[in-house]
Amino acid sequence: MNAPLSFNERRSLAPMRERLVVIGNGMAGCRAVEEILARDPARYAITIFGAEPRVNYNRIMLSPVLAGEKAFDDIVINGEDWYANNAITLIAGDPVAAIDRASQSVIARSGRIEPYDRLLIATGSDPFIIPVPGAELAGVVTFRDLDDVEKMLKAAEGGGHAVVIGGGLLGLEAAHGLSLRGMAVTVIHLMPTLMERQLDEAAGWLLKSELEARGQTILTGADTAEIVGDAGHVCGVRLKDGREIAADIVVMAVGIRPATALARGAGLQVERGILVDDHMVTSDPAIMAVGECVQHRGACYGLVAPLWEMCRALADAATGEPSGYEGSVTSTKLKVSGIDLFSAGDFSGGEGAEDIVLRDAARGVYKRVIVRDDRLVGAVLYGDTGDGAWYFDLLKKGEDIAPIREALIFGQAFASGGAQLDPSAAVAALSDDAEICGCNGVSKGKVIACIAGGAHSLDAVRGGCKASASCGSCTGLVETLLQLTLGEEVQSGPKSLCKCTSFTHADVRRLIVEKGLKVIPQVMQALGWSTPDGCASCRPALNYYLLCAWPGDYVDDQQSRFVNERLHANIQKDGTYSVVPRMWGGLTTPDELRAIADAADKYGARTVKVTGGQRIDLFGIHKEDLPAIWADLNAAGMVSGHAYGKALRTVKTCVGSEWCRFGTQDSTGLGVRIERMTWGSWMPHKFKIAVSGCPRNCAEATIKDFGVVCVDSGYELHVGGNGGIKVRVTDLLCKVATEEEALDVCAAFIQLYREQAWYLERTAPWIERVGLDHVKSALFDDPDAIASLAARFRFSQGFMQDDPWAQRAAGADAELHQHLAEVRPFPTQAILEAAE
Amino acid sequence: MIREPVTGAWLDIGPVGQISPGHARTLPVAGGPDESREIAVFHTLEGRFYALVNTCPHKAGPLSQGLVHGHVVTCPLHNWNISLKTGEAQGEDRGCVPVIPLKVDAGRIYLLRAAVLGENRRAA
Ligand code: SRM
Ligand SMILES: Cc1cc2nc3c(=O)[nH]c(=O)nc-3n(C[C@H](O)[C@H](O)[C@H](O)COP(=O)(O)OP(=O)(O)OC[C@H]3O[C@@H](n4cnc5c(N)ncnc54)[C@H](O)[C@@H]3O)c2cc1C
Ligand code: SF4
Ligand code: FES
User: Fold this and answer.
1) Cβ–Cβ below 8 Å for A831 and B47
2) Which domain does B64 fall in, by range?
3) Handedness of CA A257, A261, A262, A267 (dihedral sign)
4) Half-sphere exposure of A507 toward its Cβ, with a 13 Å CA cutoff?
5) pLDDT at A32 over 60
6) Cβ–Cβ of B14/A821 closer than 8 Å?
7) What local confidence, expressed as pLDDT, does residue A490 receive?
8) Sign of CA dihedral A462, A467, A469, A474
9) Is the dihedral of CA A452, A456, A457, A461 positive or negative?
10) CA neighbours within 13 Å on the CB side: how many for A314?
11) Which whole number is the average pLDDT over A76-102?
12) Which residues of A touch B29 (CB under 8 A)?
């Protein structure tokens, strides 16, 4: 490095030049200098202070350096010769400690004083460190400069475990690099979705699956409680849920904060960043600022593209030709080799915003563009980012996309093809051997032939040539072909599950099992959902289908449940809840009744009512009090009655042979046994059972989903009754001789219903749809059917019969019941009282 | 229990981790111009945060208990869909609930104090 000239020496060399001092030898600071030199090389005598002891390099390439794809020399932007050739004094490794605006000079840490005529602050950002215990331990590093990279490389030499806190762009690039360097990497991310600022749930899930397939452990929704140390060095990370992950190094990549301390200390106007006008001038006309440290029109940026635009405006102004910077729209790519991901603009929808989604499960592609008022406002692309630049351009220019809207999602090749603006024209233009269905290798010619052969509906085509019968992502194409070939004659098939998909309930249920789909975002991707995260219709349905398909394996998705099932109580019109404890077979005891009475008093139940299902309902309970009332009821031996669930509700019984002069069998006892076997099971809809002791049928067994009518010779088993909106009397399914057989048939019938009915379809409409014969043949044709269905039911019950009230009473999901905090306003201030 | 006066334009209501995605939590406000009311703070599956007055424009259902999808919450009482961004009922339904301006900074959630306390309406 050339010896810095003294101030007087430089004065004598260039007596006419104004003195420009730059704080920050980073990307924006040096780019600004380059831009100024390009316009007027003789104007300023330039001094650059850099906190880092090195020349100007490309910070974004630190990721490839960490990953071993580049060396430091490859990423230097301006070497020593650049400073020398342009007579720039570089003072590296001596950060500026203060700005003295009165004397127009800066003071460095070494004590060096440098006067300026114009000052440029380009201090970038500081990595944010989450204030958890242990954050100061050795081995906790950030990812901002070359020193950080060197620390990581040193740690990686010994292999071992790395934990990266933060699943944003920076964190994932750090994780990728460390993993390539041979470390076992765990990423801890607070949010449910990786890179949630850039990616929606669908793309975030794809990214997570890919990284997991590469051997990284990705923990989303994970909150760091503490960094654990051993002899002053990090040895692990503990999460709030108690999990502990071993770590030889912890990389904090949770975000950045504009580095404003100097500017603040000098009394410049600072909010989140240093405030600048359109010419990058701060509240002091002699001081400019540029880069990540500034706040322009309310925005702070963390990417380089906006900095380049700022530097241009700054140089224009600093050389007497002011142009003005108007803010930037940004886009993001992830620099992890083999992962194509692009995001730009706003994807959170909003008023009048419409999503257009294209998924190609076979190729692992997810594309989503967001359109508002015929303008593109956002785009998220995963797996195929070829059109990213084109979308970004449309977005920045705010072009009217109405003329190309239909074809927009197919990309530039389709949409800008002039004559091919109409997607059906694009499909029409495909050659006959163009592949339509990748899964089944069906060409356009074959689909057309199939349609010509009489397949006039989507289902008929699926049956005829298998096109769109597997993953379904070509459904749109097949539908277009149907329209092109038949015009108006297309027959619409069975209704799709909801507006997010063209698949029916039956398709979705079948494909979940066939393709081994295990979580909701995976179903949405594999089956080409047309919305990013579904709707209030499909989410609960998918949650149930997965729960039914993968007992014990699937983790129930609380977000996909209606409030009653989420809070294990029935919401009432005033927002309070009703609580119905289970009374097995309608039996209760004085002790239970006393406990119910006490609970009613203690929690202020305003109404206590006997339900139509033979138990007691307590009304007007507040959500905050639910865990406590449940704890009291649990203590008296009672569990949740599931009066709120798409689940087994009650087993209604009559008194039966124990007391009744007509009773033929112990209907009460059998009812209790049946309820013990079936309680807790989730179903497509609610499910009611009754057992009557004789054909007088006092328990109304013949309008239940499953009803038992006891007779002298055994038990008549009835199914498919409903006493609700549309009354339906049961069909007689069969007659059995023993309680054991009755229990087995009951379990088998429920399992058949669980596996085959559509979500929100009760047994009555289900049987009307599939026919009693279908049900009978599924149960009785194969002599083993009852046993195997019943075994599947009992297996699944092994995971279900865990009283949800007891779990909540013990503290599970406490946040669902507690307020966040309470606000008490006062005339001039507010008191915030934390809930815990 | 923390009890400390909060001044300034924004109320810090704590870290983002308190609300799991797809859920909402409530913030009762006592003694404001509305006597008492509740704010619902939502965390969408896309990781965005929004706050609304916790009262459905239809029949005052607690929106915090609804199903959240996209930037919409479906009211638990009669399934109206309310935009979390504007508070407006979607589709055929008509009605609007006040939006409380919210910002997230360095992992904490802030609500605009005046809106939480309903002061803008007291002035009006
Ligand atoms: C509490 C209770 C009324 C009562 O005070 O007796 C009741 C209350 C409700 N019923 Fe019922 N039903 C109650 C017995 C019945 C019965 C009688 C029975 O089970 O013997 C029926 C007719 C039998 C049947 O289901 O076939 C009945 C048919 C319905 C229906 C229509 C179902 C249908 O398939 O047509 C609905 C609407 C629905 O589920 O979509 C419904 C829905 C409801 C809901 C859940 C409405 C709602 O969504 O808020 C009510 C909840 C109130 C609450 O918060 O507790 N309730 N409901 C009864 C609770 C029984 C229990 O102990 O769990
Ligand atoms: C690993 C990594 C990967 C990235 N990848 C991308 C990407 O793919 N795409 C993208 O657009 N952006 C990316 N970024 C962000 C991009 O690097 C920044 O937006 C850009 O560097 C900001 O430029 P700047 O000049 O404002 O700050 P910096 O480049 O950080 O420069 C600021 C300089 O000022 C110095 N400084 C601070 N205080 C003082 C002081 N008191 N005295 C003297 N000097 C001081 C600092 O040491 C630093 O060298 C990445 C960042 C990192 C860390
Ligand atoms: S019949 Fe059932 S749903 Fe209708 S008001 Fe009575 S309890 Fe409510
Ligand atoms: S109260 Fe919200 S939809 Fe009726």
Assistant:
1) no
2) 20-101
3) positive
4) 26
5) yes
6) yes
7) 66
8) negative
9) negative
10) 36
11) 95
12) 822-825
User: Where does residue A126 rank: exposed (0-12), middle (13-18), buried (19+ CB within 10 A)?
Assistant: middle
Residue B122 lies in a domain: no
The residue count for chain B: 124
Helix A772-780 to helix A763-770 angle (10° resolution) is 90
Q: What is the mean pLDDT of residues A50-79?
A: 92
Domain A427-557 top-level CATH class: mainly alpha
Interface with chain B: mutation pick from A563, A759, A833, highest number of B CBs within 10 Å: A563
pLDDT at B1: 29
Q: How many CB atoms lie within 10 A of CB A503?
A: 23
Residue B119 in any domain: the answer is no
Q: Nearest C-alpha of chain A: how many angstroms from B90?
A: 9
The pLDDT assigned to B5 comes to: 44
Maximum pairwise Cα distance, chain B: 45
For chain A, give the percent of residues with pLDDT over 70: 93
- Confirm or reject: Cβ of B59 under 6 Å from ligand 4: yes
pLDDT at A9: 53
Which element (helix H / strand E) includes A333? strand A331-333
B95 at A interface, C-beta within 8 A? no
- Whether B108 lines ligand 4, by a CB cut-off of 6 Å, is no
CA distances from A742 to A488, A652, A719, A772 (A): 52, 16, 12, 18
Are the CB atoms for A280 and A264 separated by under 8 Å?
no
Answer yes or no: CATH 3.30.43.10 is held by domain A340-421. no
CB A442 within 8 A of CB A465: yes
Count up the domains in chain B and report the number: 1
**Lowest-pLDDT range of A494-503, B36-45, B89-98:** A494-503
pLDDT of amino acid A827: 47
Could you tell me the two tokens for B25? 């939590």
The mean per-residue pLDDT over the stretch A59-88 comes to 92
Does the domain made of A7-125+258-318 have the CATH classification 3.40.50.970? no
Query: In three state form, how does the secondary structure of A688-740 look?
Result: EEEEECCCCCCCCHHHCCEEEEEECCEEEEEECCECCCCCECCEEEEEECCHH
- Please tell me which residue, A45 or A353, carries the higher pLDDT value: A45
Asked whether the beta carbons of A298 and A268 are under 8 A apart, the reply is no
The answer to whether position B74 is within a domain reads yes
As a CATH number, domain A140-254 is 3.50.50.60
B27:A257 CB<8 A: no
